[in-house]
């Protein structure tokens, strides 16, 4: 039996002959003059090697990142320089005059109120300085204090008929943003020290007390 294969039974071998591709018809050769590139700007080219410092000798990291000794180190602080506001001498004089007027008024009203509580001054005299609603609120306190002193005098309690000395120890006043003033004073009544605080408001060119606290 013959083992030879017929030539027709072998698989078809691929055609290894190179096929020539046709040159594209839309491409054209250019001359050397047309291939020349002209610079778009006249800026000088940057030397990348110089910028990157490739020619420098490597330095020790301690020396490389050492702070500059020529510049003075900057100190970090939370303090800020307050902006100084310049005021005219006329404004300063007006402020001092108003401050002195408010302090004097506070001392006068505070002493008058204490005298009204002691029964040596009519309380109605305070109506020119105190706002009407506040005046009626304080009136009940003054009348209660006067009645207690009257009853103590009728009972003949020791020292009930003696009028204590009144001395102003200190007065403070400060203006507010809305134009009002807050003031306080410390007053000595006999052997006892008392504190008075009030708020004053300008109404029709006249200062009036709109808040009053006494202790």
TrEMBL record:
Short name of one Pfam family: DUF6459
Source species, domain of life: Bacteria
InterPro entries in the record: DUF6459 (IPR045596)
Residues covered by region (Disordered): 1-32
The protein's name: Uncharacterized protein
